[in-house]
């Protein structure tokens, strides 16, 4: 029988996990299907592959990454560590718990750098359209080679969608916003907080983007930072100069009125209003339509598209766990594809979906949501040969992290955690997050003399 052909769309952490999953089976002596990944950027890493551009990239494509220069991990690295490639193995020594973006890119790249999997990726190639032919149960995938302006189509037996869901900004309307004379962006286009120095900044939203861009702006010397919430405040003990106000009602030029009757003037506004699930290369019957949730409807075990079970999604959930969850998903999808795991009937899948959906309805707050996602990962790993890790301890790390943030939103990134994979305690970084102005890998891995540390302060 001819080998099956598998298309992976996107080579961010999820697509890379799928490539790694197949590679690890091949290394163990199995015959794997023919796997081809399509990645529209020139390199892999997805969100972690920083692009200084905003809006449109060098090929005229929408810029994918929403990350900014100053971004450091927002959760402890011990919660996202791969179970089969540890930070200690990659860096050769313990590093701190909250590395900057470039350091995490180096880690995910390092796991697959020395394997043959990069040969399976067609870079600078955007997937334009996927069509399912029901009569033969195969897919035509049409792609554009962005460097050579060549459009080609080929047939695949299965499709893995790994394009992420934090790239297409959700941009709601606010009354009078068109009269605002200052700078106005969505968080997707935010590239660095330096230019917010001395500015009065308004962030609309009350989640990770608002929180982190808020503290970055504070760190870089913004004159004031106001965060406007719709459902409820984040409620951290903000330093002087940062505040939370309820939802804004309208703009009149630079003046913004809030629903509690207060007004403020601003120089810069950033919409931290989240992202849309958007799959412009998929017809609507294959495209996931969902809000940002930990259990999107229509995905059996969070990965198999119920409407067409040879279509898989990786990383489609809202994410507490990230890299190791993508691994668990990728290993399970690989095993389904290779016939190592059995796909239940449509009726059994529906029942399973309903059961988990009901459990999801019972989730009542962040601690519950973390536990739910941990149990979801346990269920997937249980069905594969991915190394099980101490999920109870990782939940404890997440809860301690939330506590650290409550205690001090400016210093939580200085705290070290212990790896559940190796047992080693993270290093204390040479410079605190608040004092460090150089986010490079080189600086992070250096052991600066005391004088250099003082200079950075
Ligand atoms: P992505 O990383 O989004 O990668 C998707 C890939 O698909 C991209 O390379 C893209 O170019 C490619 N692609 C898209 N469309 C096409 C197409 N049509 N054709 C070909 N290729 C395509 N997680 C953490 O664990 N810690 C953090 O600190 C953290 N910070 C974050 C900060 C921000 C601002 C954002 C937006 C997310 C952050 N995340 C963080 C979550 C992040 O989404 C995950 O860590 C991870 O990047 C998700 O991986 P992914 O592969 O599913 O998606
Ligand atoms: P995110 O914060 O960009 O994180 C994405 C927010 O937008 C919610 O607070 C929501 O309010 C609000 N909102 C939506 N529509 C609104 C409207 N019309 N008026 C007012 N507020 C509105 O997005 P979400 O979806 O979490 O929140 C949307 C991802 O990016 C996260 O997974 C996070 O991990 C990642 N991220 C990480 C970092 C770092 O690691 C930094 C930024 C982002 P409501 O009322 O719906 O609650 C450092």
Short description:
The chain has helices at residues 13-27, 87-91, 101-113, 208-219, 323-337, 346-361, 366-382, 391-407, 441-445, 450-456; strands at residues 5-9, 34-38, 121-122, 125-133, 138-145, 150-156, 158-161, 168-169, 183-186, 200-204, 224-229, 242-246, 248-252, 255-258, 263-265, 268-271, 275-276, 299-300, 304-305, 311-313. Helix 1 crosses helix 5 and helix 5 (323-337) runs parallel beside helix 7 (366-382).
Describe the structure in your own words.
By secondary structure, the chain is of the alpha/beta class. The chain contains ten helices and 20 strands. It has helices spanning 13-27, 87-91, 101-113, 208-219, 323-337, 346-361, 366-382, 391-407, 441-445, 450-456; strands at residues 5-9, 34-38, 121-122, 125-133, 138-145, 150-156, 158-161, 168-169, 183-186, 200-204, 224-229, 242-246, 248-252, 255-258, 263-265, 268-271, 275-276, 299-300, 304-305, 311-313. The strands form six sheets. The chain has a five-stranded parallel β-sheet with strand order 3-2-1-7-20, with helices on one face. A five-stranded parallel β-sheet has the order 9-16-10-11-12, with helices on one face. Strands 4-5-6 form a three-stranded antiparallel β-sheet, with no helix packed on it. Strand 5 (138-145) and strand 6 (150-156) form a beta hairpin. Helix 1 packs across helix 5 (323-337), helix 5 (323-337) packs parallel to helix 7 and helix 7 (366-382) packs antiparallel against helix 8 (391-407). The N and C termini lie far apart (64 Å). Flavin-adenine dinucleotide (FAD) is lined by residues 9-15, 38-41, 46-48, 64, 66-67, 71, 73-75, 80, 126-127, 162-164, 166-167, 281, 315, 319, 322. Flavin-adenine dinucleotide (FAD) binds next to helix 1 and strand 4.
